[in-house]
């Protein structure tokens, strides 16, 4: 039915079978499935001025296709997710590779055979690699804790190098922590890859980029006669919850409400704000064809930004003489002032606070939460798509 800005005069929520809050992956997948499978008339309410959520991409002033909310690299091991999303786009054969800038040398991460030789020199690096092969076999991802458990000084040296140069300082920047605040169990899971595969997602059989763009994928997904999208509309102005029911525009609503936003925002942070990390995105267009050899370079021991992304290296777009890069500066999220919450801080007290908010909506039978914000968890794109497919399965079966 189309995408419009604002609500039309005389908007009547009761004329819709389903109201979806949010036009990102969670909301769009649920909307399309309920429209198709059940013949439901769906209204999507989106606070931003565009569809596609954080996956939104667009051309910048130089004509370079950029990801406005940071790099989104599609990868999945789920056949169902891939089959579903492939209805709305074709994919490129892009395989994501990441290099770490360690004291000026670019090394593949996860740390692998080539990284060892770059870090320790060809001869010693090869010697250490053969030790890893003897201990663990080839094409294995080995946590550095397992290297330490071998009680071998040389393997411990590899573990120490990776911890210090790949993980520690990068994690301090990403999460705003000091070394003593970093969970040792998380440190122990930092991997070394015993092999030569330098792809960042070596186990994902499906990976790439949308052949046109992510926004184009969403335009196709939302192109259905029973789906209407209303941009620049804040659901908090329409929704209120209480006494086991949901009101829309001041009246009890009898259809299904699928909510993909932040629950603490919906309740005005009255129990306290859920903590996140956010990212200041600084884009720069350069007068050159290519700035760096891969899509993403992590700055693991230097600089106050975490990484630089060069979009043309991921999309394959050809824009002669111009390229756009993105530097990311991680910091504490400030709630209620229009910032974008990116990364859940997965600590017990925060999960407990989320559960208190979630308990408030569990007795509202036609109110459903799904997605990264609504579930207060980190999702890759395929994970949030899978969650939306599961929710829509339940709604379709109970229709």
Automatic annotation (TrEMBL):
Pinpoint the UDP-galactopyranose mutase C-terminal domain residues: 166-378
A cellular-component GO term for this protein: cytosol
Tell me the GO molecular function terms: flavin adenine dinucleotide binding; UDP-galactopyranose mutase activity
One Pfam entry for this protein is NAD_binding_8
- Sorted alphabetically, which keywords does the UniProt record give? FAD, Flavoprotein, Isomerase
Record carries keyword Isomerase:
yes
Per its Swiss-Prot or TrEMBL entry, what cofactor is needed?
A: FAD
* Highest rank taxon of the organism: Bacteria
Q: Does the keyword Zinc apply?
A: no
Family matches, as InterPro entries: UDP-GALP_mutase (IPR004379), UDP-GalPyranose_mutase_C (IPR015899)
**UniProt record similarity statement:** Belongs to the UDP-galactopyranose/dTDP-fucopyranose mutase family.
This one is known as: UDP-galactopyranose mutase
What species is this protein from?
Parafannyhessea umbonata
